[in-house]
Design goal:
single chain; 322 residues; alpha/beta; Nucleotidyltransferase, domain 5; Trna Endonuclease, Chain: A, domain 1; 5-stranded mixed β-sheet; rod-shaped
């Protein structure tokens, strides 16, 4: 529960300038990590101050203004995406905290730090696990850091058509399902943390497969071909893409194989004799179902290799099979 307990104990020991420190943004896939330090007056009304994660955005904004107005001193600093990638997120967070503490216009004689991150300081300090839900000073710092970072990501979202693709006004750079999908679709940008796993997802293989099929459709349509159907299913199996070949006048049943590496061989090698037999049975069922017995047709394979670390750069190969 939020209280002055830690601060009052320190004041009884003779400390007068007690700073609370907390960070925001260790977990996101994009944007800097922010840290805030704040020294509050001992008689400040603490109503509304709490762990920033427990407050709604509207309440956080209101309490943020209260802290800025009434604090004796505050400072908000950050570590850039480049520093995060170079130093790792832990060391970048420590750097942001160190910057915020040293930027205070009142030199603290004691610092309360959220969590178990030890920052080397010229004064005494104490780390408090879940300090943002116990210490008023740390909770106030958590609000300053959180609101500042959220504003930064929203401003970044609105700064260009490129950055708004990632919906940072909503996800603030955090690893939401939507954010993963946007990265997979558009590739990462300069504000993404390259040292993080930008493509981690419980359904990664499914998503990569769909991404490959989308790219195959784009490729076929760019050649003037008409896509008739996608993901046709029957009791014998599935056909990824059925298209009309504008040059040969064939109805083409296409298997798309997509991978992010060659660890298990090239994608087209996955179409073995057993798989091909299933495709043929599915093709015959489709032709019977649509009463297109006499139309010229064939089976193709499109293989796609995706380099997930290079803005989803792809290599596409189109094989005529049967």
């Amino acid at each position: 529960m939020i209280s002055w307990t830690f601060e009052e104990k320190l004041r009884r020991c003779g400390f007068t300038s007690i700073a609370g420190v907390d960070e925001a943004g260790r977990g996101p896939l994009a944007g800097p990590v922010f840290a805030a330090s704040v020294i509050l007056p001992s008689d400040m009304d603490i109503l509304g101050i709490d762990d920033s994660k427990k407050l709604t955005e509207k309440v956080r904004e209101k309490v943020y203004e209260k802290i800025i107005k009434e604090s004796l001193a505050y400072s908000i600093s950050s570590s850039s995406v480049q520093e995060i990638d170079r130093l790792n997120i832990l060391n970048a967070t420590i750097l942001a905290m160190d910057r915020s503490i040293k930027s205070l216009n009142i030199v603290p004689d004691f610092v309360l730090i959220d969590g178990n991150i030890n920052v080397e300081l010229p004064c005494k300090s104490q780390c408090i696990i879940k300090g943002d839900s116990q210490s008023v000073s740390i909770a106030a710092a958590s609000i300053l850091a959180k609101v500042t970072r959220d504003r930064y990501m929203s401003d970044l979202h609105n700064s260009s058509e490129k950055f708004c693709l990632y919906c940072w006004d909503k996800n603030k750079g955090y690893p939401t399902q939507e954010h993963y999908e946007k990265i997979r679709k558009f590739g990462p940008c300069e504000h993404h943390r390259k040292s993080f796993n930008l493509y981690r997802d419980l359904n990664l293989n499914v998503k990569i497969g769909k991404y490959g099929e989308d790219k195959a459709v784009e490729y076929l349509q760019s050649l003037g071909n008409k896509v008739i159907e996608r993901n046709y299913r029957c009791k014998y199996g599935e056909i990824d893409i059925i298209f009309y070949d504008n040059s040969s006048k064939d109805l083409v049943f296409t298997e798309v194989k997509t991978r992010s590496n060659n660890k298990f061989g090239i994608p087209s090698e996955a179409v073995n004799s057993s798989k091909l037999a299933k495709i043929k049975n599915t093709v015959m069922f489709y032709l019977k179902e649509t009463e297109n017995y006499d139309i010229p047709h064939r089976i193709d394979v499109i293989e796609i290799l995706i380099n997930l670390k290079a803005n989803s750069k792809i290599r596409l190969r189109h094989h005529r099979y049967v």
